Amino acid sequence: MCGIVGYIGYREAWPVIIKGLQRLEYRGYDSAGVALMNDQLRIFKKAGKVSDLKDSVEGEVLTGTAGMGHTRWATHGEPSDRNSHPHTSGDDRLAIIHNGIIENYSSLKETLLSRGHSFKSDTDTEVLIHLIEDIQQQTGLEIREAVRIALDKVIGAYAIVIMDKDEPGELIAARKGSPMVLGVGDGEYFIASDASPIIEYTKNVIYLNDNEIACIKRDELLIKNIDNTVQIPYVQELELKLEMLEKGGFDHFMLKEIFEQPRSIKDCMRGRIYPAEGYVQLGGIK
Length: 286
Ligand code: GLU
Description:
This protein has 286 residues and is of the alpha+beta class. Helix content is 27%, strand content 30%.
């Protein structure tokens, strides 16, 4: 199960994101990547551990007060640098990180290929960012609206964060079926798959609901539903301490592991077992 961490505010985003990804390492993953916004949109990604990613960026410019990071649990395309997230649009203007599966990605990909798009990875995720780009090219709509329309065409589960080079002060986050939490700070916002990367900065959180899209600036938050109605965010105060959060509310790690087994098995099999077709596909075994 992958992890997502996003930040926009006044701090340097890189250390917040890397630390956050490390807090989510318990979820299991095969690759890691980060996008940072400074004078340009910079992307760093690597198969392997978050520590491998850190080692690979020595000497790079890692400044920027907005960014997003991802740990990937591959479902579409082998674990590799090329298939790691973030993925970009054809013109490299948009970047996306995604947790989940776009089930109708192959029909969307066919349509996009016929319209001249070409792809750099084997992932379902890259198809989604090209779809958003395509909608913008066809309609001239702003990014938030293009994301909403694209998500309406998507079947599957997702938690996503999107960055747009032309909107450097904004992150767009959305979810359906995959968890996502927003941390509300003073002049800053955090995004994560669970509250553990957020809690040391703020206790005020918003749990995004299915089908909600959040447009996040450092001092402004707008949440809309996929049908374009504005939602009033419900900010709640986290009572759990970091140690408790890491134990998922259980008294001991052992209990947590026992109760997480059904979900862990489901996550392992996600995208690999197709019950309707009576068919199993495991990486490396044809
Ligand atoms: N389906 C996407 C991929 O294979 C995201 C997997 C994940 O949830 O990490 O890249």
